[in-house]
Specification:
Helices cover 43% and strands 17% of the residues. It is of the alpha/beta class. The strands form two sheets. It has a seven-stranded mixed β-sheet with strand order 9-8-7-6-10-11-12. The two termini are 30 Å apart. The structure holds nicotinamide-adenine-dinucleotide (NAD). Residues 141-144, 186, 223-229, 247-249, 296, 310-312, 332-334, 359, 362 line the site of nicotinamide-adenine-dinucleotide.
Length: 432
């Protein structure tokens, strides 16, 4: 199924659970506005290339549209629509005053020079100049978009307006209004949730109250080694988890020492932003003593306590779900588990911590960045993370209660929490 079909299947299931008002459901099933446009870019060679760009504004009942921009060769409208819908649920699930939106450009940014990337980012901003802004729609980074790209977008938008508008995007460099903590916020939020899961979900540890968990080194496999995955690896490693498998778009490696990757390996991968750099051979039959190379598919089937998905959609499907051995799946990526797989995992008592909660740390600190921009008053990283932890833990607890009361899966419970808030906002506005 496509990402959008997956998203709407999840919506239907949760809507049935909460007996969502039929008119509210109709509103939530469709985007409010879709922007589809082409972006001509003068390449360094002198030729002009035209790229397809999108911005989907799904729902703004609870506040301005909010969501990242993805630059990826496989990005298309269907994917951006799904991501935009999930942002609507996510912002409501953590109770921040935003609606949901998402953007994308079908492009392989690795094939562009820095100046071409800058022209593309500025072109994207020009195409959307009348539809984004601090009170309308606030983009942010996503796959293969960076703080530098947010800096160019903010600069272009400010030039169009004739004055500085830092609040038009989040995830900016610190020097121009970024927030302390935004760079690692997605992983940090996911980590707070993981620690809560360890207290509540006893197959993770030795005892139902989680008392002995600190003594047991839980094993972790991470798919995807970008902003979300690499920072999560760092946090888990330093908290004493044993990282036994990691992948990026090129390759995957699995520890064979039995001890997990050491601090040197983790630090080197984080610095180089990739897995392949740990050992330059990139071969499946590599001669290194402490790890073996494998495929991304095999990595997902590794025997481990926690599988962290931090790459792209539709990674666990009905095809491979039977071979997944993890006890907990934490979704830092958006939409990595298909609904048919979800059902099977629930029956096997595998806890799936859904994207719309697990990766909400990113948008929550984006919200803090926007608040700081509007107030022109900046907080320390300590303040940011204290506020983030409170939001993540409170909403995790609320969702967990719904899950237990209804004997349902955590994704449906988080959706139910979000739908309750969305329904109230939609009704308060008189839309339904
Ligand atoms: P990124 O661009 O920083 O990194 C993407 C990573 O995924 C890279 O390591 C890349 O090599 C890897 N990758 C790409 N294709 C892969 C494949 N087929 N198999 C394995 N790895 C692959 O992106 P990111 O910001 O870390 O985003 C990753 C996921 O997290 C996405 O689903 C994104 O929507 C989600 N997310 C990110 C944020 C954020 O703040 N960055 C917030 C919420 C959700």
């Amino acid at each position: 199924m496509s990402p959008l079909q997956n998203a709407l299947t999840q919506l239907k299931k949760a809507a049935e659970l909460v007996k969502l008002d039929a008119a509210v459901l109709e509103i939530l099933k469709k985007p409010k506005k879709i922007h589809e446009f082409s972006i001509p870019v003068k390449m360094d060679s002198g030729e002009t290339k035209v790229f397809d760009g999108y911005r989907v504004q799904w729902n703004d009942a609870r506040g301005p549209f909010k969501g990242g921009i993805r630059f990826h060769p496989k990005t298309d409208l269907n994917e951006v629509e799904a991501l935009s819908f999930w942002m609507t649920i996510k912002c409501a699930a953590v109770g921040i005053p935003y609606g949901g939106g998402k953007g994308g450009v079908t492009v392989d940014p690795k094939k562009l020079s820095k100046t071409e990337l800058e022209r593309l980012s500025r072109g994207y901003t020009q195409a959307l100049k009348d539809y984004i802004g601090p009170e309308r729609d606030i983009p942010a980074p996503d796959v293969y978009t960076t703080p530098q790209i947010m800096g160019w977008i903010m600069d272009e938008f400010s030039k169009i307006k004739g004055y500085n508008v830092p609040g038009v995007v989040t995830g900016k460099p610190l020097e121009i209004g970024g927030s302390a903590g935004r760079g690692t916020a997605t992983a940090q939020g996911g980590f707070y949730i993981l620690e809560e899961v360890a207290k509540k979900f006893h197959p993770m540890g030795d005892d139902p109250k989680g008392q002995k968990i600190k003594n047991k080194k839980l094993s972790v496999v991470i798919q995807g080694f970008g902003n979300a995955g690499a920072n999560m690896a760092d946090l888990c490693f330093h908290a004493g988890y044993k990282i036994i498998g990691i992948s990026d778009s090129q390759t995957a490696i699995i520890d064979k020492s039995g001890k997990g990757f050491d601090s040197h390996t983790i630090a080197k991968m984080k610095e180089k932003k990739g897995v392949v750099d740990v050992c330059e051979c990139k071969e499946i039959k590599c001669a290194c003593k402490d790890h073996v190379h494998t495929t991304n598919e095999k990595l997902l089937e590794t025997d481990c306590d926690i599988l962290i998905l931090a790459a792209l959609e539709n990674q666990i499907t009905k095809k491979n779900v039977g071979r997944v051995k993890a006890k907990v799946i934490l979704e830092l990526a958006n939409g990595p588990t298909a609904p048919e797989a979800d059902e099977k995992l629930f029956k096997k008592n595998v806890l799936v911590v859904p994207d719309v909660l697990a990766n909400a740390g990113g948008v929550t600190v984006s919200y803090f960045e926007w608040v700081q921009n509007l107030a022109n008053y900046y907080w320390s990283e300590k303040e940011v993370f204290e506020k983030l932890k409170k939001i993540m833990v409170e909403n995790f607890d609320a969702a967990w209660k719904i899950k237990e009361q209804n004997k349902t899966d955590l994704r449906t419970a988080v959706f139910a929490l979000a739908l309750g808030r969305l329904e109230k906002a939609i009704k308060a506005r008189g839309w339904a």
